[in-house]
Amino acid sequence: MKNLRFLLFLTLAAALTFVSCKKDDDTGDDAPPAVKSLKLVKATNADGTYMKFTYNTDNNLTKVNYYDISGNLYKHSDFAYTGKNMTEYTDYNGATAGEKITVTYVDGKPSSANFQQNSGAGLVNYLTLIYTFSGDKLTTIDYTTNVSGVPPTIMQKFNFTTSGANYTRNDKEGAGGSANGYSEYTYDNKKSPMHGVGVDFILGAIEMMSVNNTTMQKFVSSTGQIDQAQSVNTTYLYNAENYPTKQTDVSFDGNATIVITFTYEEK
Asked: Phi, psi at residue 128, to the nearest 5°?
């Protein structure tokens, strides 16, 4: 089971504008509820490691800093934008870029993403993602090899379906789309702190794409076997605005439990 599973790319997260309701103390009327905007600024793992998040004036994520249990910064990830579209992501270990993703857009939606990885000799291409949309809904992502001197091959295809504002992902592999299992998800009716900063679709991460929070993720193999170690049930504690402040993941086999707490600030 992934550590801090809500994180994007290697271990990343997003923020969201939150809405708070309170009465207008100055009148006796049923006035419209006041609005309070918050942003996710910190996610803390049960072992004391944590991440801090920084945003631009459009409330898009621009930086994630990673800290060990002693509060020492050991890694960071930077996001660059063209307008409101995230066009570049770079992951650093110290001052060295370990991975870089460059995204192109058509009509405001991602059309492709080129992945580079540093294995010690600088950044080298290794993967390209191709996105297909139906209207505003993501329907497929093709994971295609991008290695110098080697013909590109579809190594993985993700197919997506939607129920309301939430997604389900079915995994297929190979150019012929041979079955490679599928996934099932259930959701709460609360707002997700992972959705809505312009990076929702980049890796097809369900937690980023969907408006609500997953309460169950079931992974089933092509032979129909449930992956008991990777499948999880999730419970939450929520603040007064109905957004999660604590997330607890428990694997189906009961052998792994992950607890994450969320901290917010007003914009």
From this structure: -130, 135
State both tokens at 1: 């089971």
The helix (run of H) or strand (run of E) holding residue 93 is: strand 85-93
Instruction: Give the Cα separation of 45 and 47 in Å (integer).
Output: 5
Q: Is 79 exposed, middle or buried (0-12, 13-18, 19+ CB in 10 A)?
A: buried
**99: Cβ–Cβ under 8 A, 6 or more apart, which residues?**
9, 10, 90, 91, 115, 116, 117, 118, 123
Q: What angle do CA 243, 219, 176 make, to 5 degrees?
A: 120
The CB-side HSE value for 92 (13 A sphere, CA atoms) comes to 14
Letter for the amino acid at 60?
N
Q: Is the pTM of this model over 0.85?
A: no
Per-residue pLDDT of the chain (267 residues; tens, 9 = 90+): 443 343 433 333 332 222 223 333 444 555 555 546 778 999 999 999 999 999 999 888 999 999 999 999 999 999 999 988 999 999 998 889 999 999 999 999 999 999 999 988 899 999 999 999 999 999 999 999 988 888 888 888 888 999 988 998 877 765 555 667 788 999 999 988 878 876 788 878 888 899 999 999 999 988 889 999 999 999 999 998 888 999 999 999 999 999 999 999 887
H/E element, 157? strand 154-163
Domains of the chain: 38-266 (2.40.160.190)
Three-state secondary-structure class, residue 207: helix
For the record, the structure tokens of 100 come out as 């870089």
